[in-house]
Design brief:
about 140 residues, alpha+beta, 3 helices, 6 strands
């Protein structure tokens, strides 16, 4: 059974990030299942830290982008919206070039909070980063 409020459309979701940090570092949503969402991000000069490896902050951006998008897709947008409340990340492996894929799945979908687990892997499916994102579910002012 699907967790989404309405059927998600990848083209619309990808267009939503136009002219934002998401498009600047080329995060692209690639798949949505009944209870997960996936996106890719290149590891290149836009996402490197000065030592020439993937910047931990870029991994956090991918994690929060996935969790925020997933959270938004789980609520009625005419009533609620979601904002990041807390994020933590463990950086497991470094990489210099290639493409990472983030896989996000909710651990908790509550009335006022959601918790999302995000695993970021390289092209050989090795774990690069794991994070947990807590989202606040807020109600639009009347």
């Amino acid at each position: 059974m699907s967790i989404w409020f309405t059927k998600p459309d990848l083209d619309i979701i990808n267009a939503f990030g136009k002219n934002t940090l998401v498009s600047h570092i080329d995060i692209r949503f690639i798949e949505i299942g009944d209870d997960f969402i996936k996106a890719t991000m290149p590891v290149d000069n836009r996402t490197h830290q000065p030592m020439g490896i993937l910047h931990g902050g870029a991994s956090v951006v991918l994690s929060e982008t996935l969790a925020s998008t997933g959270a938004y897709l789980c609520v009625d947008p005419s009533v609620n919206y979601c904002v990041g409340l807390e994020i933590n990340a463990n950086h497991i492996r470094s990489m210099r070039t290639g493409l990472v894929t983030g896989f996000a799945k909710p651990a908790h979908l509550g009335r006022t909070t959601q918790i999302w687990e995000v695993k970021i892997t390289d092209e050989q499916d090795r774990l690069i980063c794991i994070s947990r994102v807590t989202m606040a579910v807020l109600t639009h002012a009347k």
